[in-house]
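Board notes (copied after class):
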Amino acid sequence: MLSHQQDATRILRRKEVEAHSGLARSTLYQRISEGLWSKPVHIGARAVGWPSREVSALIEARIAGLGDQEIRDLVRTLEARRKASAISV
């Protein structure tokens, strides 16, 4: 079992994101293009994934009933935090 800290920094691959969110691949990428889902992180030359904390936050936002504009704001916040945490390391 992963500790909370390890789980928060875990990278989920696309199939895991699909399983957790219930979204199909095409819907996931459509939401990214609409600003309704965060962009993936490159983890290799041909591999991407999403930080698990971002996936959880976006799923929780939908469950809470946030509208599209609120989710776009959340996506911008999540991506800004991602960049800020990389700079502060």
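Comment from the instructor: The chain has one domain: 8-87. The chain has a mean pLDDT of 91.
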